């Protein structure tokens, strides 16, 4: 997952040359990108002023991908090593995960063969049937951590807004 997220962030910026340093320095999870600041770029020894500006500007608007939300949910449940299998089986967003039927055939297709992992997946999937709400809450929290208290207060008082709209605004 790590290099996929880095490439999704740096690719559109035309700054692939920094992919290795992002990986080496541990800025390798999509939720890292929306909180990048000047100190992070210093830690990665990214000194080109234009590149720094481009990266920081992109960071302020970056939203983790739907695939990352699936990865995060799997990771939260200790089964993230199945991420590639989920993507190959076209479970690329949390809605698809929440409506999948956990039959023996699906578990086999996902290559979840160990009984403990099957149980962990069923337990993670069963209670919610919609894991996206918790993931979206965490992503919103990660994005709003970089906001000023007055901005957060404004967003919270706009309670008629959907969670999606709140996440989109960070």
UniProtKB/TrEMBL annotation:
Where do the TM regions start and end? none
Q: Tell me the InterPro entries matching this sequence.
A: SAM, SAM-SH3_domain_protein, SAM/pointed_sf
Q: Where is the SAM domain?
A: 69-131
Family annotation (SMART domains): SAM (SM00454)
The record's annotation in Pfam families points to: SAM_1 (PF00536), SAM_2 (PF07647)
Q: Which residues form a coiled coil?
A: none
Signal peptide range: none
Q: What is this protein called?
A: SAM domain-containing protein
Q: Which organism is it from?
A: Patiria miniata
